[in-house]
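Hey,

Quick one before I head out. I ran the complex with 3-methyl-2-oxobutanoic acid overnight. Inputs first:
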Amino acid sequence: MRPKVTVPAVRSSKRGRASPALVMLTAYDTPGARIADAAGVDMILVGDSLANNVLGLADTLQVDIGVMAHHVAAVGRASTRALVIGDMPWLSYHVSVEDTIRNAATLVRAGAQAVKLEGGRARVPMIEALLATEIPVMGHLGLTPQSVNAMGGYKVQAKDADAADELVEDAMAIAAAGCFAMVLEGVPDVVAARVTAEVDVPTIGIGAGAGCDGQVLVFHDLLGLGVGPVPKFVRRYADLASLAVEAVSTWADDVRSGAFPSDAETYHLPAEPGPGGH
Ligand code: KIV
C-alpha cells in the first residue's frame, strides 16, 4: 500500500520539481471518502461546498463549525492514504485568533490533518497563529465562495492587471506566512500560472487552467451526482445520478409487480423435523 500523504510531502510537490500534478477531491461522508481514497487521490477536502452539494443550502455561508466537524469525522474515519483537509467555514476564522484556533482544533480533533481558509493578506495573523499551534493551513484565493455577497456573485476574479497584481501579492503573503499549499479558484489561466511561478508552495487549481501544480474538483460534479448545469471547468467522468434513478425505479417496479423480494431474499423458519425426527 502506498504511504499516507503528509503535509510536508504536499508542500514539496511543485510540478516544476518533477513531481506529478497533485490530485485533490472533495468528499463529505464515509462512502465518498472511501471512493476517493481507493481511487488514489492525494488529498480529500471536506469542503464547505457541502452546503450546496449535500445539504441543499443556497451557499457556503450557511454551514458552521459544528456541521463541518460532523462531516470531517465521517471522512476521517474512511481515509487511509489521502491527506484530509477540513474547510474552515465562514466566521470561524474572522472574529479572533483564539476563536480561530479553537475552531481549527475542532476540525483536527474530528479527523483533519490540516485546515483550509479563504483570503489573502488579511488572513496572515490567523494563519500564523494556527501554524504556531501546529495546525497546517491551506490557502484559497481568487473566486472565494464565502465572499459571494462582496463579489456580487460567483464571478471569475483577477481579470485586469491591477487585480492580478493584488492576487499575486496575496499569494506571496500567505505563502510567506506558512501555508503549505493554496487553492486558486476561478481565475484566468495566465494569472494562475503567474502565481504558480511566484510562490514556492503548490497551487491547486479549480477553474484556473492547466498551469497549476495540482487540480481539485467537487465529488458530485465529477461523478454527475449534482443537479442543474455545471461550470465550464467541470469535466463529468460519470453520470451516477441517472444510473441511480434507473436502479431505484427498477426496484420500485419489482416491488409493485411482486418480483421483489424473491424466495432467496427471504428468511424462513427452520425446516420442520419429518416423521421419525428427520
Ligand atoms: O468547498 C469546496 O469545495 C472548495 C473547493 C471548491 C476548493 O473550497
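The chain has one domain: 7-239.

Talk tomorrow,
K.
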